[in-house]
Amino acid sequence: MTYRLPPLSSLRAFEAAARHLSFKDAAAELSVTPTAISHQIRGLEEYLDFPLFKRLTRALELTHEGRAMLPKVREGLECFAAAIESTRQVVFGGRLVVTSPPAFAARWLIRHLPEFNAAHPEIRLRMATSLDTIDTADAAHVSGLSRVDVRDDKTETFIRYGNGHYDGCRVDRLFAPAYTAVCSPLLLKGMRPLNVPSDLRRHNLLHHEVDSELDQPALATWDQWLQVAGVTGITADGGTQISDPGLLLSAAIDGVGVALASKQLIEAEVLAGRLVMPFDIVIRPAQAYYLVVPEAVAERTVVTAFRRWLLKEAAKVREG
Amino acid sequence: MTYRLPPLSSLRAFEAAARHLSFKDAAAELSVTPTAISHQIRGLEEYLDFPLFKRLTRALELTHEGRAMLPKVREGLECFAAAIESTRQVVFGGRLVVTSPPAFAARWLIRHLPEFNAAHPEIRLRMATSLDTIDTADAAHVSGLSRVDVRDDKTETFIRYGNGHYDGCRVDRLFAPAYTAVCSPLLLKGMRPLNVPSDLRRHNLLHHEVDSELDQPALATWDQWLQVAGVTGITADGGTQISDPGLLLSAAIDGVGVALASKQLIEAEVLAGRLVMPFDIVIRPAQAYYLVVPEAVAERTVVTAFRRWLLKEAAKVREG
DNA sequence: CCGACGCGTGAAAAAATCTCACTTATATGA
DNA sequence: TCATATAAGTGAGATTTTTTCACGCGTCGG
């Protein structure tokens, strides 16, 4: 069985044009210019040796022939889509749970997930957050990772903030947060200048309030940043203490003061103009974000697909 | 409904490769090199993010995934083929009868028809021959052309040899035969030389015997050719008289003598080395072959498709 | 052990596809 | 009515995709 067919891309153009009854709209759908569609259709008509559209002013109409051809062409495209979709379902299909630190989930993962969903619509992904994914100060102890039910359809993976040593797991370093000072752009236009780090003297510093009882991780502190910036004489215990990191960032956005935040996690706010980074001084804690996958599920295709995608995304962040 | 699909050509390559279980054979089917298939498949696998084939030494095997994907891909291609075929059936479908002079049918049309069939498999074409398609010497009288039943599914067209004036018909000139001397290549290697036209003295001339009762058309004669060639003193009434033109050519092929034949109609014999044209001297009668279509059917798509194709083929002959 | 065979690779060539700048035709509305 | 905007068409040139070429690898069969 050998198929005698025109360039298949022209059939795709035909289907889109016939559906929209507009070269312009079809072009938009296929992300090309209307001219491209025009050429494709013309080529197809030439190949077939009969016209598919009646070109009226400002409107297209299918010819008798075009109308006759459309359903089967559409069916063909649907077959292709179905072939791929169902096979992806076979290969990758299933559920995947990603548990990560709340800030990472809220400020980074959730913004990038739509892309993953587009690339892998057949993977039903559930995001979960847990403070347990943040290594405690004395580190190395990892709980819960080994208790994965291997038969479970819901494969679970973790993104952890910590030192990268997790027994019985495949570990990939994503990136280390780069903490820098951030504030509302309005603050820069205010009366008090903020040109050099020492100007911070006259500003309200927003601190992450560490609950000592929780044995909190080694978060970046203003003390550390000010030291790197070479600023002395600022009492780090001044300013506002806020326990919730999300609330802290909101405060910075609202112009309440200057916060320390990870460059990578506030990308969206900076792009949107809600936050600015007045100084190019960053501190990097020894800890980083890691993708941690229990060995038992590491070979599952859902996991490898997610891992491959996540590492690619993380690489962009590292470079950018 | 917007389809998210890989380059469709790669699906075609996949189907062919999967069917043959060989890149090489698939390449042959699609008239490309095996490398091209290799690249296409690789690209598709990259797009899909899973392998379609297991590459063994000297043999391919479909992966689980490839096997899962194949049926729907095939179905898609079949849909496309069906879409086009059925629409062509709607547009062009039907029967077409082409009546032409016997020699034209046997020596030219029949060799070119397979191409038309390939281009228009939906048109069932019947070849007919009739001496009536050759204008009689007193010309202008055309019989039978007007008596076409317009409702008839069997649309009839004619190829006529004559002067080109046919009332009530669309007429296109195809080409005028160019008569030249032809003989078997063996004759040239024989003892009697055939380097210049006057050498024909020593050869047997094969004549088309004209049946005077039939009011035969103005065929080219040796008298005319010898005059153009500037040869005198050959008695044209010598040589062998043969009444059937096919038989006459057979005789030439068998080395019986030298015949006068139309360059265009003996192309195949020359290419096959059964005949040679020792001299580049041709005579062109005033008559030519014409495509003659009764007005009543001239607008039918079967006719326009045939006409377009035939004129293109005839143009090649005129140039070549 | 050698040569033929089938597939793979990367760079270069060829072909297709797309875009750009400009045109046409006509409907809209000031 | 006439300028304006819209959708499509054209042909040349740019771009991207596809194909080829030259060569490499592993192995099967004599």
What's the arrangement of secondary structure elements?
2 copies of one chain form a homodimer.
Chain A: H1 8-20, H2 23-29, H3 34-48, E1 53-56, E2 59-62, H4 64-92, E3 94-100, H5 102-119, E4 123-129, E5 154-162, E6 169-175, E7 179-182, H6 185-189, E8 205-208, H7 222-229, E9 240-242, H8 245-253, E10 258-262, H9 267-271, E11 288-294, H10 295-298, H11 301-319
Parallel strand pairs in A: 3-4, 3-5, 8-9, 8-10
Antiparallel strand pairs in A: 1-2, 5-11, 6-11, 7-10
Helix pairs in contact in A: 1-2, 1-3, 1-4, 2-3
Chain A binds a DNA duplex (30 and 30 nucleotides) through residues 7, 9, 22-24, 32-40, 42-43, 55, 57-60.
How far is the first residue's CA from the last residue's CA of chain A? 51 Å
Fraction of helical residues of chain A: 40-55%
The CATH class name of the largest domain in chain A reads Alpha Beta
Overall mean pLDDT of chain A stands at 88
| Chain pair forming the biggest interface | A-B, 44 and 44 residues
Low-confidence parts of chain A: none
In the CATH scheme, what's the topology name of the largest domain in chain A?
A: D-Maltodextrin-Binding Protein, domain 2
Radius of gyration of chain A: 27 Å
What is the H-and-E element order of chain A? HHHEEHEHEEEEHEHEHEHEHH
